[in-house]
């Protein structure tokens, strides 16, 4: 199903396809008309996609068909061995993790996992982790440290699960612990925000030496809807909240919260997942190379310095 | 969430102001309490022991040894995002500053607690519901780093509706910054006691407040990650009795003790003396 602002584009694309079909089957020369329509399509795409509002970007970040963590792992890594469970309470399908090989290097990966259809989304709790998910992530961090492997985290969550079960089992506690555990890594740690970076539930696996973000992903302290519900007392004001929160990739780059934007194909990652994966691969490779010469202690200090400097105040 | 609770809170206080000034009504048992009695009892209801909110200044008086407190905080907030909702953030800040009588939602300083050299940091609910933005995060980080440099213990009293929305992702980053700073303390084996008071939720709970050496909570305090209203909306059911209160957290293993405010100082002092490296062989 197209997003609201994609509809005129999809309609035009359908019309062009229809005309092309007709031209081919009937032998009528419509190349002039098609040319005009194709130009109009290109113009429409440029107008729409080059001037996306923050709220439109949020919708792209949530678009069905956007690559999920497992899609990215499957697409740019090999020899993936998924590891399950937190060794304490249970297995949380909202977080996936394991061992893999990236460009010849063995790495440890973890990430929030959205479902690719409704059924899977329900099973994965819409990528909203319980404490078990974060304990699984911390187990992956332990593995990365012990075996000296780069740690790569993919962020894509509306937020940590706000429910009774999660609270009973210490949601706040595990998020704090996960932040601390990731900060203590003595290996290169890279966080990549694929889609949604929803607050503490995202940050828990976001303490990287470098934090990368896909062009249309968002990252903030609260979702636009929740922010609107509180400050405007109306969740329908989410578009305004998205603007006010400055949650887009360019905003975050200028604030120093992310270090690099990974470009998406025109119209968003879901329009061309293959190209998106290639861009992620390239960015990850370059970032790993940047960190390759740092010693374990330098990596730890680099991460401390990176986060120590964030914040704006007057003396 | 912080803001909303602040508004609700203010309405409640407004009602209380309608009755003669010398008397305060306990929000739990409705008893009329003589204000001076309440103050001398550290704002604990003498009838039902309900812990009413205590100001940041009174907290410092209560915890720091008399005359030992030397303030180190004073950073001022800015408006890094140009945030405007129903009113511009700078206007809100001005109002909060007037209401709370300080530049942001935290006050802290060097002091001794039971003779132990410490840094005491106290959040202030009167300022934007104790929400954490850049200033709160930076002051906590600086306080922790100072303690690490000067071999001091750290005591933080939390009261917060969570991270401050008007500084968005910068507020979020304060969770990481403060948490990372605690490692400087750990490296020098200096103790950190976290005191959770009503309410402590969101980004504060999910960062420095939850990873202390010892976590104490005041009785009946609301403590959690998500606020009860958000949870109720998510699960569409009534919440269990006592959910997210201190005693619930104690039962679930999340805090070390629930401590009556009137015994908080002696409890904190005892812990610091037992853990602080300089007091290893001293009698208690």
Q: How is this structure best described in words?
A:
The complex is a heterodimer of chains A (315) and B (284). Chain A has 315 residues and is α/β, with parallel strands linked by helices. Chain A contains 14 helices and 9 strands. Chain A has helices at 7-26, 31-49, 54-61, 69-76, 118-123, 131-147, 164-168, 171-183, 199-203, 224-231, 238-245, 249-254, 273-291, 296-308, and strands at 78-82, 95-102, 105-112, 151-157, 189-198, 210-214, 218-220, 260-262, 313-314. In chain A, strands 1, 2, 3, 4, 5, 6, 7 and 8 form an 8-stranded mixed beta sheet that branches. The radius of gyration of chain A is 21 Å and the shape is globular. The model of chain A has no long low-confidence stretch (mean pLDDT 96). In chain B, helix 5 links the parallel strand 6 (116-123) and strand 7. Chain B is an alpha/beta fold. Chain B contains 9 helices and 10 strands. The longest helix of chain B has 20 residues, at 168-187. The termini of chain B are far apart. The relative contact order of chain B is 0.13. Chain B is 37% helix and 17% strand. The interface between A and B is large, with 55 and 60 residues. Strand 9 (313-314) of chain A pairs antiparallel with strand 4 (76-77) of chain B.
């Amino acid at each position: 199903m197209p997003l609201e602002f994609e509809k005129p584009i999809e309609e035009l694309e359908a019309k062009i396809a229809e005309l092309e079909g007709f031209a081919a089957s009937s032998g009528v020369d419509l190349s002039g008309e098609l040319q005009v329509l194709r130009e109009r399509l290109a113009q429409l795409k440029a107008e729409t996609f080059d001037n996306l509002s923050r709220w439109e970007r949020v919708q792209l970040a949530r678009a069905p068909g956007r690559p999920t963590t497992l899609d990215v792992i499957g697409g740019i890594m090999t020899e993936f061995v998924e590891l399950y469970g937190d060794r304490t309470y249970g297995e949380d399908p909202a977080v996936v993790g394991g061992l893999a090989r990236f460009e010849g290097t063995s790495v440890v990966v973890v990430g929030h996992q959205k479902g690719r259809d409704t059924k899977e989304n329900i099973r994965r709790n819409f990528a909203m982790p319980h404490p078990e998910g974060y304990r699984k992530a911390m187990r992956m961090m332990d593995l990365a440290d012990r075996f000296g492997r780069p740690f790569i985290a993919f962020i894509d969550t509306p937020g940590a699960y706000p429910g009774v079960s999660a609270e009973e089992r210490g949601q706040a506690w595990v998020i704090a612990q996960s932040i601390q555990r990731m900060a203590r890594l003595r290996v290169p740690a890279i966080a990549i925000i694929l889609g949604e970076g929803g607050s503490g539930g995202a940050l828990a696996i976001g303490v990287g030496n470098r934090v990368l973000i896909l062009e249309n992903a968002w990252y903030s302290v609260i979702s636009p809807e929740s922010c609107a519900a509180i400050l405007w007392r109306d969740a329908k004001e989410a578009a305004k909240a998205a603007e006010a929160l400055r949650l887009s990739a360019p905003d975050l780059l200028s604030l120093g919260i992310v270090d690099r934007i990974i470009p998406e194909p025109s119209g968003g990652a879901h329009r061309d997942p293959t190209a998106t994966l290639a861009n992620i691969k390239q960015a990850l490779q370059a970032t790993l190379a940047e960190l390759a010469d740092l010693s374990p202690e330098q990596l730890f200090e680099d991460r401390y310095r990176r986060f120590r400097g964030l914040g704006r105040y007057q003396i | 969430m912080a803001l909303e609770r602040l508004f609700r809170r203010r309405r409640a206080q407004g009602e209380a102001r309608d009755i003669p000034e010398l008397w305060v009504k306990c929000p739990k048992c409705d008893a009329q309490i003589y204000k001076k009695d309440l103050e001398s009892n550290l704002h604990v209801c003498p009838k039902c022991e309900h812990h009413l909110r205590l100001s940041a200044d009174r907290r410092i008086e209560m915890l720091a040894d008399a005359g030992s407190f030397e303030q180190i905080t004073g950073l001022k907030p800015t408006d890094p995002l140009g945030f405007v909702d129903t009113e511009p953030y700078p206007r809100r800040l001005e109002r909060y500053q007037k209401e709370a009588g300080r530049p942001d939602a935290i006050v802290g300083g060097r002091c001794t607690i039971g003779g132990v050299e410490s840094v005491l940091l106290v959040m202030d609910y009167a300022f934007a519901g104790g929400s954490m933005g850049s200033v709160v995060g930076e002051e906590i980080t600086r306080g922790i780093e100072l303690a690490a440099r000067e071999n001091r213990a750290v005591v933080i009293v939390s009261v917060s509706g969570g991270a401050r929305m008007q500084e968005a992702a910068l507020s979020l980053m304060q969770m990481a910054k403060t948490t990372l700073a605690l490692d400087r303390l750990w490296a020098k084996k200096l103790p950190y006691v976290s005191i959770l008071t009503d309410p402590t939720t969101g980004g504060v709970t999910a960062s420095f407040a939850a990873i202390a050496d010892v976590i104490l909570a005041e009785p009946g305090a609301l403590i959690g990650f998500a606020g009860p209203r958000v949870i109720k909306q998510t699960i569409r059911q009534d919440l269990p009795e006592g959910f997210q209160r201190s005693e619930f957290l104690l039962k679930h293993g999340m805090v070390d003790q629930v401590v009556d405010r009137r015994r908080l100082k002696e409890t904190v002092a005892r812990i610091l003396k037992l853990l602080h490296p300089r007091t290893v062989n001293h009698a208690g």
